[in-house]
Write a structure and sequence with these properties.
Number of helices: 12
Shape: globular
Strand content: 15-25%
Radius of gyration: 22 Å
Strand order of the largest sheet: 5-2-1-11-23-22
Structural class: alpha/beta
CATH superfamily of the largest domain: FAD/NAD(P)-binding domain
Number of strands: 27
Helix content: 25-40%
Length: 437
Amino acid sequence: MDQARHQIVIVGGGSAGLELATTLGRKLGKKKLADVILIDASRTHIWKPLLHEVAAGTLDSAEDELEYLAQARWCNFRYRLGRMTGLDRERQEVCLAPTLNEEGVEIIPERRFHYDTLVMAVGSLSNDFGIRGVKQNCLFLDTTAQAERFQRKLLDCMLKAHTQGTPIVQGQLDLAIVGAGATGVELAAQIHHVTRKLANYGLDTIDPDKHIRLHLIEAGPRILPALPERLSQAAERELVRLGVTVHVNQRVVEISKAGVITIEGKIIPAAMKVWAAGIKAPDFLKDIAGLETNRLNQLVVTQNLQTTRDARIFAIGDCAACPLDDTGKTVPPRAQAAHQEASTLARTILRQLKGLPPLDYHYRDYGSLVAMGHYSTVGNLMGGLMRSMMVSGLTARFVYLYLYKMHQAALYGWPRAILITLLRFLRRGVDPQIKLH
C-alpha cells in the first residue's frame, strides 16, 4: 500500500459501504489514484432487506451472499476482516479488535489503519429500548448469522414436534413477532408460507392451522406506520386472512420464556419470540472520539454527509443522522437512502481529490414496498408526475425485485445482475422451495 496515495477507509460492508467501496475501487483504485480499504467484521455480504427470507428459509444465503475478498479483487479495493473498536482522530487511525476463530484462538492481531478520508457505514442493530428479557429471550435479524440461527431453530422445532411421539402441546410451535414494520410483516407472511411447505415435505403430523399460531405485535395504532393507512389496512387484512393474529396498541414491557407481556398485563404465549421493534447504531459509536451522536448512537452529519466535528470523517447509511428537512427530522433508515448516500458520497470524494467542495445530499423518497411472501406485495411509489401512487400485487412485486436488482447492478454491473437472475430462475426447477437443513 502506497502511503503517498490518498487513503480512503470505509468501515462497514453493508449496502452503503460496499457500493461506495465498489464505485471508488473502479474509479480510483484501478487507476492507482487512491487506496480504498473496506473493513467489515463479516466475510460475506447479503442485502439486509432479504434477511427475513433467510430467516424463514425461502432464501439460501449461500446462493445470494457476496464474498468481500472476491469483490475487492474484481473492483480494485482492499478488504480487511475486523471489528472496529475505536478511533484516534489525532493520528487519523481506525482501531480494530483482534479477530478470533470459532475456537477462540486469535488469528488476526489488533490493528490500526491510517486514513485521509474515513467513511463510517456500520449500519444498525435492533434496539431493545432496555425492555426486560428481550436480549435473553428474543431472536434478532440484524445479521446473516442471526437469520440463519432463526431458520435452524424453526426447523428444529418443527422436526421435534413431528417426531416426539406424543401429541403436540398447545403453544409448542407458537411464534410472536414484536414490531409490525416492514420486517415484522414480511417475516410473518414468510413464516406462514414456510410452515405450510414444511408440512408438505413430510412433516405431516403437524397441522399448521391447528398447531401453529403467529402473533404480530405493534405498540402503535396500526401496522406498517411508514405506509399510507389504506395500504396498512390492506396488509392487515391479508395477514388476518392468513390466520396471523395482529395485536395493535400493545406496548411490550417484558419478554419472558413463556411469552410476551404488554403494559396492560396481557400475556401473549409464544415458544419463539422475534424482536423487530426498532433500530439503533452500534453502541461503540456513542460519543466515539468526541464526534457528535444522537440518542440512537447515530453520527450526526451535515447535509454533505460530513460529521459535524471532523470534515475528514463521513457517515452514510443507518448509522448516520442526516438532515431530512428544516423540521429537524432525519433521513429514514432505508435501503434506498443508503444507495443514494453512497452515490452522492462517491461523487463528493472524487471532487475533493480534485480540490472541489463536497456535494450536498438530498433524500428522494421513491416510496415503500412490503413483500408478503408469495401472497401479496403492497406499497406506494413516489416521484415523477404523480406525487404518490398506490401499488399492489404483481406490479408492486416487480418493483420490489427491481430494487434488489439495482443493488446487484451497483456491485456487479447490469449484465451480471441479469445473468444472476436468470440462473436463479433456472434453478427453481431443481431446488426445493425452502431450505431444509
